[in-house]
Structures are given as C-alpha cells and as structure tokens.
Amino acid sequence: MHITDIMRGDSPTFSFEFFPPKTPEAAEVLYQTIRDLESYMPHFVSVTYGAGGSTRDLTHDLVERIKNTTKLDPIPHLTCICHDEGEIEAILARYAKSGIANILALGGDQPPEITYDKSRDSFRHAIDLVKFIRQFNDSGAHHDPRGFGIGVAGFPEGHPATPNRLVEMDHLKAKVDAGADYIVTQLFFENRDFLDFRERCALANINVPIIAGIMPITSMSGLRRIAQLAGGAHFPARLLRAIQRCENDPEMVKRVGVHFALEQCHDLLDNHVAGIHFYTLNRSDATRVIFDSLGIPRRRKAQSAAP
Ligand SMILES: Cc1cc2nc3c(=O)[nH]c(=O)nc-3n(C[C@H](O)[C@H](O)[C@H](O)COP(=O)(O)OP(=O)(O)OC[C@H]3O[C@@H](n4cnc5c(N)ncnc54)[C@H](O)[C@@H]3O)c2cc1C
Fold it and tell me: Which of 2, 29, 248, 257 is most deeply buried (CB count within 10 A of its CB)?
C-alpha cells in the first residue's frame, strides 16, 4: 500500500526492520521471526540494503519473498553508493513489476571492507536518489499512478557527516521537498532528542510524518554493536547505569534493555508519535514483549503464510 494511504489510516503506525540473512542458518532464524511477527500485522516491514553485489541480491530476493509469501508489506531500502543510474532504474523497474509500493531512499555508508571509486556513483546524496525515483514515478512505469511512496532517513541526534545542525536541517528540508513522503529516524535512547527533532522539523516547515526508530538493547555485545552501527548515538547515563548493574547476567541485561525501550514507546505514544519502527535485528522476542506490553490491539487477524 502506498505510504500516504498507510499514514492516512489508523495511526500511529508500527513497523519492523529486517536485514537479509547471509547463511542458511540465519535465514531460518529470520523466517521464524517473520512467522512470529506476521500475526502482529505491522503497517509495513522494511529490508535493509548493503554494499556489494551478493548482499544486494539478497535484499531484492527477500523483499519479493516477503511480498509473495506473507501478508506483510515490504519496503526495500535503496542506497546511492556503488550505483549508477542504469542500475537504479533496473532495480526500480523490478520492484514496480513486483508490486512494491514504497522505497526508503538513503545515502548509504561505505563499508570498510569495500574499496571503490565514489566519483563513479551517479548519486551523491539521498536527495539525488529521491529526485530520480520521482522521475521514475512520473514516467508512469509503476502501476500506481503516484508511483513509489518515498521515505528518507532523519537523525534526531544529528548526522556525524554534517556537524552544523542548521545546515543539516536545510539538507533534510531539501530532501523532503524533493519528494519524500515520510521520514524514519535513526535509533535514539533519549526521547527528548526525538521530540526536539520533530519540533525543529516543524519550524523548518518539514511537514511529512516522522516515524521513530527504536532498537531495544538485548545484550552487552548488542550494545557495542549499536554504538558502532549508529555512529554518534548517545547512550543516557540512566540506561548505562541500569545495564552496568546486571552486566554479568545476560537475561537481566535483556530485560533492562527491553523495559527501557518499552518506556520509550509509551512516552512516544503519549506524545502522539506518527509511527514506531522497530529495528529487530531479525529477532522477534524483544519486539513481541514490547508490542504486547503496549496494549495495542492487533489490526486484523492474519493467517500465517510465512515462507
Ligand atoms: C532509518 C534508516 C535506515 C537505514 N538503512 C540503511 C541501509 O539499508 N543501508 C545502508 O547502507 N545504510 C542505511 N542507513 C544508514 C544511512 O545510509 C547513513 O547513515 C548515511 O550516512 C546517511 O544516509 P542519508 O540517507 O541520511 O544520506 P544523505 O541524505 O545523503 O545525508 C548524508 C549526509 O550528507 C549531508 N548532505 C545531504 N545533502 C547534502 C548536500 N546537498 N550537500 C552536502 N551535504 C549534504 C547530510 O546532512 C548528511 O550529513 C540507514 C539509516 C537510517 C536512519
């Protein structure tokens, strides 16, 4: 369903993020997670996009598999890096043919293990990709006359590449004005940062829905991984203190992390958030505990049709 229709319906939205598995064992875990989460009928699920050919094919395959074998509505991520126009056009055509309704358009980060010449990329920033998808939409190549719905990333705590926060907001505004329909944020642990970001967006006349990205901490290694993946993420002292108290007890760390994320979600709902996007890391347990504890009624009964 086009994102503007999704956002116009019952709100707030709830959505889950997966990444394409690289091994058969990891694929099994993911498909079990999808089965577990399907009955929650999220408004959409999204699938991340890496750098490098084989990982990218895994994204396309997973998106189409979710679309064809479940009741879930997948939104693929697409990035600028390591792509030229022809490649992006082919991917858009493939997704349009598969009935994919929305794309999350991103700059993408260069993974350290891949060396490549950035000057050969057709798109420098996510805004260029947004404009290109708009052009594709205008060409009428999508069965929906509106074409793909387009999402972009937002960074409540700021993106490390642009330390000037006023200039950064100008870039975000330009990206949205180029044709984005919604924003999904980077994960954050301090709701104040999100609420302030939302206010700053309103002041900048950015009026599209802003979906909050939430990632529960479920282990000490997960905490370190989050710090690495979400460069610049701020970990509040009260969260670190609570985790430190039980750092030698993995089960307790998980409970603390999930409880913290649950409190964040309650507060976001009280503050009329447009949507909550759960970074699941392909596991369902933490997301299910949070979801169940929020008291949100299931949207409708889903018959399991997981892959
Ligand atoms: C919800 C979410 C999902 C993500 N999924 C993925 C994924 O699947 N795969 C992946 O590789 N990465 C993913 N990322 C990471 C993201 O690609 C990186 O953080 C990237 O560095 C920034 O992406 P962006 O789309 O905001 O890029 P951009 O909008 O291009 O911004 C990147 C930086 O460039 C600056 N900038 C923007 N426009 C201009 C301009 N015209 N001139 C100068 N500077 C400019 C911005 O201020 C910012 O600092 C995701 C991030 C989020 C928040």
Answer: 257
Question: What confidence tier does 115 reach under pLDDT thresholds 50, 70, 90?
Answer: confident
Q: How many CA atoms lie within 13 A of 219 on its CB side?
A: 7
Query: For residue 77, what are its two tokens?
Result: 């991520």
Peptide bond into 236 cis (omega under 30): no
How many angstroms separate the alpha carbon of residue 63 from the centre of ligand 1?
21
**pLDDT for residue 302 is more than 80:** no
Residue ID of nearest Cα to ligand 1 atom 9: 49
Please work out whether the CB of residue 77 comes within 6 Å of at least one atom of ligand 1: yes
CATH architecture of 3-293: Alpha-Beta Barrel (3.20)
To the nearest 10 degrees (0 to 180), the angle between helices 85-97 and 126-138 is 50
Measured distance CA(66)–CA(34) in Å, rounded: 9
The structure tokens listed for 198 are: 């939302």
Q: Where are the domains of the chain?
A: 3-293
Closest ligand 1 atom to residue 19 Cα is: 8
Summarize pLDDT for 194-223 with one digit per residue, the tens.
999 999 999 999 999 999 999 999 999 999
Ligand 1: atom nearest CA of 213 is 1
Query: Is the overall model pTM greater than 0.70, yes or no?
Result: yes
Residue-wise pLDDT for 26-55, tens only, equals 999 999 999 999 999 999 999 999 877 778
Q: What angle do CA 130, 64, 282 make, to 5 degrees?
A: 90
The answer to whether the Cα torsion of 176, 178, 180, 181 is positive or negative is: positive
Substitution candidate for ligand 1 out of 171, 197, 206, 214 with most atoms within 8 A of CB: 171
CA 220 to chain CA mean position, Å: 23
